[in-house]
Automatic annotation (TrEMBL):
It comes from the Bacteria. InterPro entries: DsrE2-like (IPR032836), DsrEFH-like (IPR027396). Pfam families: DrsE_2 (PF13686). This is Peroxiredoxin family protein.
Amino acid sequence: MDDQIEKVSIIISQGSLEGIYPGLIMANGARAEGMDANLFFTFFGLDAIHKNRQKHIKLASVGNPGLHVPTWIGGLPGMAGFMTRQMENRMAKLDIPSVPEFIEMISDTGAGLYGCKASVDLFGFGPEDFVDQVKDQIITVGDFYQLAAGGQIIFT
């Protein structure tokens, strides 16, 4: 097959560790392969680019079938923090950057990072709430579709 993907636009809508990392990894990989990449953060995915929240992203420990533990165990006090630390330790051993480092690294490659205006308005945020790589790039869904035109849209 000779059709090469030249551009991807990735939507990150979840605010959990396992909801944010796939999009970051895919965007980083796209840039490494020479593709244009845009990241569009909406709903709880905004936590990845929120100044006060991005360092506190947790693994979803309740009702997460990928953890292979009963839901009631995931709901025990402190379990989300414990499981998050375990996952972060494993990622550190593999030299996977933290969310803030990943956001900065991806931005430095020239990828576009955008916040969803509707979600920003819904949660009462303003440009000052976001990291420098995004604070001036809060866009509408229509703007996102224009950026995505001609490429693949990926929803994580």
